[in-house]
Amino acid sequence: MSVENENANTVRPNIHPDAEVTAHELLNRAIEWQQYIRGISEFIADLMYEDETVKGRHVAIALEAIGSLAKMSVECTMEAHSQMCREQLRLATSAAAVEQVTS
Fold it and tell me: Where on the tree of life does the source sit, at the highest rank (predicted)?
């Protein structure tokens, strides 16, 4: 489900991380997105607890935001994992090449 604004444009986040960002920075971003998710979730819970007339549309928008933030967090985590795997492969290949030359 996608939430639409008044202009009927679908709101979608840019989830593609920068090419020059390190795995460490990507994991920090993923943690940051998770903290936003926690904050929005707590806000929704407080709002619904305090005000029994909360409109479903507002809750739906907040839940869509949580979904988008979670997707961004997963994208950052996946890219960080991919970078770490490529680095391990590069190091293993370099070590094997050095060992082959010295043998």
Answer: Bacteria
65 Cβ contact partners less than 8 Å away, ≥ 6 residues apart: 40
Amino acid at residue number 26: L
Distance separating alpha carbons of residues 44 and 41, to the nearest angstrom: 5
Cα–Cα distance, 97 to 31 (Å, whole number): 37
> Following DSSP, what letter does each residue of 66-92 receive, concatenated?
HHHHHHHHHHHHHHHHHHHHHHHHHHH
* Cβ atoms of 33 and 73 closer than 8 Å: yes
Count of residues in the chain: 103
pLDDT tens, residue by residue, 36-78:
999 999 988 888 888 878 788 888 999 999 999 999 999 999 9
